Amino acid sequence: MHQSIIEDEARPDGPARNSRGAGRRVGRRDRRRRDRAVRTARRKILVSALCLLVVVGGTTGAILHSALGGDDAGGKPIQLADTEPRYQNGVNFLPNPGFENTVAGWSVGPSESSRLSPTVPGRSGSGAAVVTARARVPAITLTDTPDAVPWTGARLTYLGAVWVRTTAPGTRVQLRLTELDGARTAARTLTNVTLNDATWRKIEVSLRATATGHRLDFAVVADRLPSGQFLYADDASLLIGKPSSPAPTGPAATTGGQPSTSPPVSASPRPGTSATPSAPTSGQPRPSTAPPAPGGSGITPIPAGMPNASTTGVRAGTSLTLLSGDQRITRAGTVIENRDVRGCIRVEADNVVIRNSRISCRSSGSAVIKNLGRNLLVEDVTIDGQGASNSGMSTADFTARRVNISNTIDGFFVNDNILIENSYVHHLAQTPSSHNDAVQTTGGSNIVLRHNTLIPINETTGESSNAGYMFGQNIGPISRVVFDGNFINGGGFTLNGAGDVTFVNNRFGRNCLYGIKAFKGSQVKFDQSNIWADTGRPVNDDPKC
Description:
Layout: H1 2-10, H2 20-57, E1 63-65, E2 77-79, E3 106-109, E4 114-119, E5 128-133, E6 139-144, E7 157-166, E8 171-181, E9 184-195, E10 201-208, E11 215-223, E12 230-240, E13 258-262, E14 281-282, E15 319-324, E16 327-329, E17 335-337, E18 339-342, E19 345-347, E20 353-355, E21 358-360, E22 367-371, E23 376-379, E24 382-384, E25 391-401, E26 404-406, E27 410-413, E28 416-421, E29 424-425, E30 437-441, E31 444-450, E32 453-454, E33 467-471, E34 478-484, E35 487-488, E36 493-497, E37 501-504, E38 507-508, E39 515-519, E40 525-526, E41 531-532
Parallel strand pairs: 15-18, 16-19, 17-20, 18-21, 19-22, 20-23, 21-24, 22-25, 23-25, 24-26, 25-27, 25-28, 26-29, 27-30, 28-31, 29-32, 30-33, 31-34, 32-35, 33-36, 34-37, 35-38, 36-39, 37-40, 38-41
Antiparallel strand pairs: 1-2, 3-6, 4-5, 5-12, 6-11, 7-10, 7-12, 8-9, 8-11, 9-13, 14-15
């Protein structure tokens, strides 16, 4: 019985073998099936190879014509649909998500202050990753290396998750997805959790890609992990969410984290129309009312009457003319007005005026506008640091009015003879190593900050920076500084420093991490006129955020 079954399976379909004509028909049919299978296999191999070349070469929308002929394609072109990745059920992009006896595919930084190694046991499986802090630094980052997603698909939602625990209770850990266009950050989302004990906690985050062909970085960041302490990670995942259902935007309820989605850091919150060399451009019209605070974000809104996106930067209806490249100003009395400057500005002359213009510059080692002259006046100017510039304006002897600064590491970096009023600093460009302050002073005197809005926090994500005003006497004493009538929200400590600084008539938001003030010495003056924006109560009577 078994023998007959085997024989029947081996025998070709159709009449008995002694029929010669039938045998020829069966042979032709078998050859056709075989040839079709070979052509199909060859076509799949060719398409897969060319897809790989398209992805590596950065080319999208390629159309490949069949080189096989006579197959099921019928000579029609094969469309690769922009070579975008598609939803795949349960496919984890991370190459070594469980850290089973190895940490291949991962790296940790800064390398001189941390060490990455495998350990046992893990949360599941046979192992986990352990990051050891060799020194206390602002942040230690565990990231996939190289990026597991080298080629994003526009509008696809990527879902990241990882389980973590630590030997240092109170450590804040962040899971972050960053969409990168070369060195530029196109989008970033993050979730923070505070680990209060040694148990495993899950962090989740999602990111909707803005374009095809970018990279996606997966990073776990430990904030101020003490030297000699450990962070463990296990069961990491990076998936594509189903297009038919919205992806979760934050952690599971057990994590206690704050989900977030940040805007692209290269996009100014209130840009004018883009300029071309052949035609002037228009500044973005200012709306008649201030924009509302993000709904449901938990961010203290900007109080009515304080500077915001509608009252700062390029004036409504302005026609901007393109000025390309970095600008070095050496002639006294120079006026730059109604310009769209695509580069940094270095002022080396006195009495220069920059008015009603947009300045866009990516300078990792300097300010967008750096003043080395005297009596610089900057008013109605939009400054975009494009995610890398050290500050929007520095360092001394200038007046800034109705200036809108975003996408810089620090907003203003100021030391001597400064007046800043009616200006707006927001959406600072945070990097793993940045120490963001809306305003920073390292020494100097005769500084006035009056009626400004300073937001050392991403209003969309809730990610906090270092301080609203950081005043450390790093290079010399600080004296005759007046901080009057401002609205400040966010930071570790919103105000942090020492020196002869007077704070009066200021209003504060509730989104700081530790408190409003961390003062050293007895020179700082902070009276009962400094109040909470939501209750009107003096901060001195209710100092916690």
